[in-house]
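#onboarding

Welcome to the new folks! Below is a worked example of what a typical request in this channel looks like: someone posts a single protein sequence, and someone else replies with the predicted structure as tokens. Don't worry about understanding the tokens yet, we'll cover that in week two.

Example request:
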Amino acid sequence: MATMERSYVIDLAVPKEDFDAACAAYGVLFGIDSVHTGAVHDLTGQIDMRHFPVGGLNAFGVMTVLRGPGELLPGEEERHGTGSMLDFLRVHPEGGIYLLGHLVDDIEGYLRKLKSEGIPMATEKPSPYPDGRLIITDKVVGADWEFAQHRGAEVTGDWNGLRAEASGAGIERAYRVDVAVRDLDAAIDSVRKMTGREPGPRAALDDGGALRGVDFPIGGLRALGLVTPAGAASGGLSRAVTDHLDRYGEGPAIMGFHVQDLADTHARVEKVGAAMGYAQDQQSGEGSTNITSPVHGVVFQFTEPLSS
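Example response:
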């Protein structure tokens, strides 16, 4: 039976006029140079992208649409994802987390599994790309879900090598993403069907009971969280989740990273013109944590672990 192995990429979509600024801002936040993957992964000229080797995941990506469906040249076909990304940016004009990507061991088998579970698919067969083959769902809990089978372990090895070379990195690794949902039970059912995993107790802050949710152990990331308001917002996470639902509806709202030094992270956040705007330092089970104001549409949860 086909199985999901782990999460390997999270992609952010931004308007094309903000692409360079977003890449520069995340380079400062992470202390890691990005890799220009657009020239390799999209030869149509419709999409550009850069990816950061952040650890845990293979990469955190920044993507933009260069030419939309109404701007294609004669003879061009729309690259899959162009229309979906444009639709996303109409709702999220500042940008936001657009796609959650996962590795599987059998791409054809996984496609059959998703279809048998009634998951709506944007691709009807695996599509080849330089690293292997992939399939993508329609929007589920506000995100496109990509499942890929890579051509070999060297793909992950290359990204791990790039991460190891990033001597100035201010982050240790990506460790979680939290998805804001309105109907927790329905979201749990959808994610269970897509990932084949069972949810466990939520490990992150619940802001004194203002949130309720679950964590799916997903690999690569330590957890994919589903979270919904359970009362009046009272702290960083609950305000971020409530704001996301009010402005955009369901979808990935918060990206979590382990950092080496929160004081250094504060300075990096201020350098890109953002702020630790949702909360002061709080203690979670992971360690001391803080929540940023949105940076090109993404709220970050930076956590200095209790122990490395």
